[in-house]
Prior knowledge:
This protein is of the alpha/beta class. It contains three helices and nine strands, in the order E-E-E-E-E-E-H-H-E-H-E-E. The chain has a single domain (2-158), classed as Rossmann fold (3-Layer(aba) Sandwich). It has helices at 85-90, 97-111, 129-133; strands at 7-9, 26-30, 34-40, 43-49, 53-54, 67-72, 112-123, 142-146, 152-158. Strands 5-2-1-6-7-9-8 form a seven-stranded mixed sheet, with helices on one face. It is globular.
Amino acid sequence: xxxxxxxxDVCCGPRGFWFSKKDGxxxxxxxxxxxxxxxxxxxxYTERIEPDIVANFTALPxxxxxxxxxxxxxPHIKRSGPYGRITxxxxxxxxxxxxxxxxxxxxxxxxxxxxxxxxxxxxxVQFSIREILALSPHTPLFGHQSGKRLDTHWVSFLKPNKxxxxxxx
Length: 169
């Protein structure tokens, strides 16, 4: 199955930003598979987290240099209380989370083909993008801020080809 797919989403969660939640070019992966029931003032809501493959982004079960594009949208909130809607939906940071994100970047680049693209999404609610990008082994190529408060960042990386030297910032 993996050989026919060119895109890997390592933290798919409920596939919230995908135009097609069943895009045949994408392998959706997450460390959990569950159905979450939530209550809102407007009524009850069910969220489905149903990855194609259950896997943790810190130890991906794929061969090196497999995917042309990897999408990395890890949890961005450190849990400090009961599960809220956001942490139920997307997960949360805990324990040695900086090391977890460092390993996540490393794994994403490992399974990415040379000259492949890593798309990284981060919301600066609790931690700055600068602090998080410092955990990556590679320099970002470009990015974009979005959202009402411009606190969500979409950042693109290009995995270096060993024959081509990377330019530093």
